[in-house]
Amino acid sequence: MSKEKTKSTVQTTGHAWDGDLQEFNNPLPRWWLWGFYATVVFTIVYWVIFPAWPVGKGYTTGVMNNITYTTTDGKEVTTHWNTRALLLKELGEARAEQAKYIDQLKTASYAEIAKDEEKSAFAYSMAKVLFADNCAACHQAGGNGVIGSYPNLLDDAWLWGGSYQQLENTIREGHNGFMPAFKTSLSEAQIDDVAEYVLSLSGEKVNADKAARGEKIFQGQAGGCHYCHGKDAKGQTSLGSANLTDSIWTIADVPGHNTLEGKKAAIKAVIRNGVSRTMPAWKERLSPTEIKILTFYVHELGGGK
Amino acid sequence: MKHETIETNAGWLIVLTMIVISIGGLVEIVPLYFIDDTIETVQVDGKDTIRPYTPLELRGRDIYMREGCYLCHSQMIRPFRDEDMRYGHYSLAAESQYDHPFQWGSKRTGPDLARVGGKYSNAWHVQHLMNPRNVVPESIMPNYPWLMQPLEYKDVADRMRALRLVGVPYSKDTPEYEANVKQFGKEVADKLNIINAEANLIAEAQEGNFDGNRDDITEMDALVAYLQVLGTMVDFSKFEEGYFATFR
Lengths: 305, 248
Hints:
The complex is a heterodimer of chains A (about 300) and B (about 250).
Chain A: H1 3-9, E1 12-17, E2 21-24, H2 30-49, E3 54-55, E4 58-59, E5 66-70, E6 76-80, H3 83-107, H4 110-115, H5 117-139, H6 164-173, E7 175-179, H7 188-201, H8 208-219, H9 226-229, H10 260-273, E8 275-279, H11 288-301
Antiparallel strand pairs in A: 1-2, 3-4, 5-6, 7-8
Chain B: H1 3-7, H2 10-34, E1 43-44, E2 47-48, H3 55-66, H4 81-87, H5 122-130, H6 156-165, H7 174-184, H8 186-191, H9 197-208, H10 219-229
Antiparallel strand pairs in B: 1-2
């Protein structure tokens, strides 16, 4: 655009700054102007159809734009368009699509799910997501747990029982794992003896004299360990007490140490300080079917009983 | 006023620009104060189940804000199917009615925390805050080991008084206490009483034992107490499925 043409055809706003600094007043491009009018028209249509304007203590709810959703108990509800009803509708549709499988899982026994390839595949894929969202934070993505804190779900040792029924109960109701601290009731020497005995139970080579003394404390009044762990030290699933004879350790990090002293120190720390662990109850966060699916998954992970 | 006056006077330009810009916000926000359905009625047996935070939870919330948790964690589950499946029921306006300021957030580097209460054990929270990699190997959240320092709670009554000024129903005298008993029930009303704030805080920390040590009251106690109450005040099984949709 030449200087000449600019001067002759384009209007200015009429303001002059610093004597000669002026502002062009070009008309808006036509496509832009019509685009603008179109948005205005769209807005008016939108105001009519969707909830929009506040009126007194309420608001316009929109016309010709109802949502009908189906609740879990099969009731149909129609309401004006809103995002909450829209969600209920989407959830209802998803439920209807999955109903074929979910209904089967709801009524099927665990054995039936395990036998049927289609059912178990569906349960598996659903459980994987549920496990990642809800369980993995403690039991880890693969279910291997954290020694000392969260039980490993891959082995066949179960503190609270590994049957379908016991696992389901554990997930539904949660658990409080508790072992008292013995640092005040037992002397350091006694704790040492008990640790030797506990190690001997899983076949470690230990000082026989010390272990014998430890056994007396374990089985007698002084320690009273057998009240929970049992005379045979195999634990009781009703109390969540650990089996001490299977060389599987969930709290004392025995496998993490190569020397007898190291292993003993790990056990002594547990005897001294006790254990207090909580698994939350899931019955309020997860549906019965979701708990069932997770039970099946955990059972399959490693040697469910 | 002539156009030129505004254009050549910076003071006028600023004031008038701000007025024009604020119109957009005002027409969107102000009507919500007057619409009855904005905040849902959440009552079981005639009592509100959503209550202001107890003194300990309140201090936990202060620490949550001090550490900038809101920069990575939102507290707002939107009514979408994917969020419903991952986090649980969408957040209600009523659930943040006593939050000043609210912690909705708009950035999720970490997960949403609106319903984290009760999801994990206290011990998990402690381990996780000390070093998140203890329990979530792939986590990029920083460590917060200093939360084990003693909690400063001498000023908790003052903090409650400040919130009372902006409308949170902490009670400072008998009529207000009686009103709280009516609204929330006696058990809750006792915890909202400013006069007993410090004693309530100590009792709750010791009873709850959130940090795994009963001997001291740490910032960890407060923060975990706060996290464990998030999203737990509404028992959705007590309400019909479409009930909360009727408020929109």
